[in-house]
Input
Amino acid sequence: MLEATKTQKSPDGTPVNPALEAESRIARIAVTVFPILVAVAGVVGFLLPGAFKPLGPAVPYLLGIIMFCMGLTLTPPDFAAVAKRPWAVALGIVAHYIIMPGAGWLIAGALNLEPELAVGVILVGCAPSGTASNVMAFLAKGDVALSVAVASVSTLIAPIVTPLLVLFLAGSYLQIDAGGMVLDIVKTVLLPVVAGLLARLFLKKLVAKVLPALPWASAVVISLIVAIVVAGSASKIVAAGAIVFLAVVLHNGFGLGLGYLAGKLGRLDDKARRALAFEVGMQNSGLAATLATAHFSPLAALPSAVFSLWHNISGAIVAAWLARRPLQDAPLQEKPLREMPLPDKTS
Output
């Protein structure tokens, strides 16, 4: 009986939080299952394009569902982190919106991509941070509060920053309707996120009941978006698939590596560096696919679909590798605002 009441400890002697351990297992399941769902969706979309291509007009609404789910997971402490550590959050935002757009532009030019694919790669780079990055930061033993703050702010400023960056970097490839992009991002990202946040504040009991289902709802919806995008460009995937995959792997790799380096140059601790690696290297590929489909062509959305699969695979691998490496320095003397994110952030 006494044994049952003892505090559980890990092999290194540190206390184990049973609730946190359970949430950690859920997070690992989410980041394992999600890439599989996306891969299956991509294959189905390629094999059955006629079944998914007509659903193209529904993509913005599907993205709105995902962003509403993101809003449901946000809490006031997530925004308090911005005021508490403005330098770290600002560094993450600046690094994200300089490194990824710049890398996308350089890769598109270096690989001599055709205009639609070049715009697609650049558009992925100009998108806000991918919300699955929060879970990756947790698994990598990174600074989750910082990760959530950077992802939230990058999303909220996306209606202004993303169209301007796309216009500046991709305007030489295709005609860019920056004003139309602003409206689309407001409708499909900003308004749903705000609606979700308000629902979390005023409908706490109801939201608490649906939170466990959000990981799988988001995973299914983003997988459906990938299937639709792949179906729209199925006829050109065989010819363009290899070069797009190379571009995506390079793009994501530069983001992860340079994101960590940015934190190091900014003199952040190792936990914060790990968080910035994922905040810079992982993109909201669902938004990029939506904008590419609406403003350009299904082929321009192909890099977003491939990125959606690859950044979750690479993120999980890098997170597992970092988790096995000891932190290089003592963390900041600050109590985390959130132990870990809810693993429904899968864009």
